[in-house]
């Protein structure tokens, strides 16, 4: 398919994202007014997180984007010139969307793979300098397993963006009132059963959303050496500005 045909295909529908296309046009988004700002805020924070890793040149980096959705962030890092970008998603329509956008931009360094985070064997993909896990953790029933997967895929650093919930602290009886354990963090159970048909929701309906403290604790426990919180830019989308969503970069060493 030639470039004009690809652009017509991209403009023939509405997207979750506003892609800035090679001809200077932008795809139409179906998000309500103001909500699309979450993506520009995420992107600004992502560049802030990756800047130290890319200091030696973007072409030295390989990236895996887990739960890539329509490939918005995958295409952005591929356009920076990363050596290899693998975009992974459980929904076949998202794999098709990402493949289309890779063709629109002419990105030979980007490929899309259909796989579910719940069953993905990291050995099937290999390891990457950078793992992206943006907007995923609060949609899965096993966020600890997702973070273990991220560590298995990552050689240098993993960037995670997620909704977070209020933390609980204190001690609980652990088998007897004379033996207690400290709570290290908490997860909130969220029901998305009625939304599993939606392309942005859980595939199972059961979601465990971490507190920020739980997120950091688990990232250390699964093998990341240090975790940095990325500061939102001025004028950030309200959820990231308020701390109800966070972005962190977890380093292997």
Question: What does the secondary structure layout of this molecule look like, with pairings?
Answer:
Elements: H1 3-11, H2 37-50, E1 62-66, H3 72-79, E2 84-89, H4 92-105, E3 110-114, E4 128-134, H5 143-153, E5 154-163, E6 171-176, E7 179-182, E8 187-191, E9 206-210, H6 212-221, E10 226-229, H7 238-242, E11 245-251
Parallel strand pairs: 1-2, 1-4, 2-3, 4-5
Antiparallel strand pairs: 5-11, 6-7, 8-9, 10-11
Helix pairs in contact: 1-4, 3-4
For the largest beta-sheet, the strand count, sense and barrel status come to: 7 strands, mixed
CATH fold title:
Rossmann fold
Q: Please give the alpha-carbon distance between the first and last residues.
A: 44 Å
Rg estimate, integer Å: 19 Å
Structure in words:
- This protein has 253 residues and is α/β, with parallel strands linked by helices.
- The protein has one domain: Vaccinia Virus protein VP39 (Rossmann fold).
- Helices cover 28% and strands 25% of the residues.
- The chain has 7 helices and 11 strands.
- The strands form 3 sheets. Strands 3-2-1-4-5-11-10 form a 7-stranded mixed sheet, with helices on both faces.
- Helix 1 (3-11) crosses helix 4 (92-105) and helix 3 (72-79) packs parallel to helix 4 (92-105).
- The chain is globular, with a radius of gyration of 19 Å.
- The N and C termini lie far apart (44 Å).
- The mean pLDDT is 96.
